[in-house]
Amino acid sequence: MMIRQAIAFAEVHKYTYDEDSTKRPSEDDPAAHRDRFVRQESQRRTFWSCFILDRILSVGESGTRLIQVKHLSNLQIPCSDENFTSGRAVRTRLFGETDEAYAKRRKEIHEQVLQQYGGHEPPQIEWEDRHDEGMLGRLILALDHFADVNEWSHNGGRRSEKPNIGPWNPETKYYQLDKRLRDIKNELPTELQLTSINTENHVYETPSTTSRTYCLIHAILQLSTAYLYLEYLPTYGFKLEKPQAPMDAPLVTEPVPADQPDYWEDRAKNCLDYVRDFSYERNRYDQWSAT
After folding, report:
1. Which of the 8 DSSP states describes residue 57?
2. Residue 87 per-residue DSSP state
3. CA pair distance 26, 111, nearest whole angstrom
4. Which of 75, 178, 195, 197, by CA, is between 20 and 30 Å from 155?
5. Dihedral of alpha carbons 201, 206, 212, 217, sign
6. Cβ of 30: how many Cβ atoms within 10 Å?
7. DSSP label at 240?
8. Distance (Å, rounded) from C-alpha 244 to C-alpha 252?
9. Alpha carbon of 21 to those of 37, 40, 108: distances in Å?
């Protein structure tokens, strides 16, 4: 009930409305410009906090998502903590916006602003690029993806797919979820990749808020990895010489792609590697907490 009230409050007070998305760059006092940005970003972050809670509470067989993605297409993801703390007014990509769409929107807004100023140089609009995006935005994307994976899993998983086709087939929901998961992992900046060095840095050398978000991102990605990868591995494959397709119905009869002859072995290795790396991260956090 409380999350419903919080979401309703945020919507009534238009926390999902981006004022800057419909206005040209401001020429007002820099301090006033900064204060307006901080206020709007605070409202956005308040709504995104509701979104995070909504996605967490929706996990499970009977979970229901109160906030629908279709209502978020015009809402910016949170900016980086550095820009928020300093009050640096930046614009970010919209929720679910691709790199191509983001670049196109930036170009269109720049052309519109030039026309509004009669060709004269307008006030600068600052944009966050992919490598500048904040950790909170990446956590939101990872959590929304896991909510989709959870829904697919509880709706039957591979048993909800067309019979006989493999998980490498673009027609499957599995393929779409797996590709999205790989994209989220690959788009993480170097300092957020799940490595032993990054884990050490986040545990011992960075602020605790950054450490928690780093851990949460990879905990959620690990859950998505486990949900997806285990779906197509044999349930009791202990006596098998190597990983293969599921042994229980529905069976996969579609041939493995010619360019991926070791598909099943690679999938099992990737799953175990990621679980191993996350286990190392978890152990380091446990050791740090015990000190």
Report:
1. H
2. T
3. 16
4. 75
5. negative
6. 11
7. -
8. 10
9. 12, 11, 12
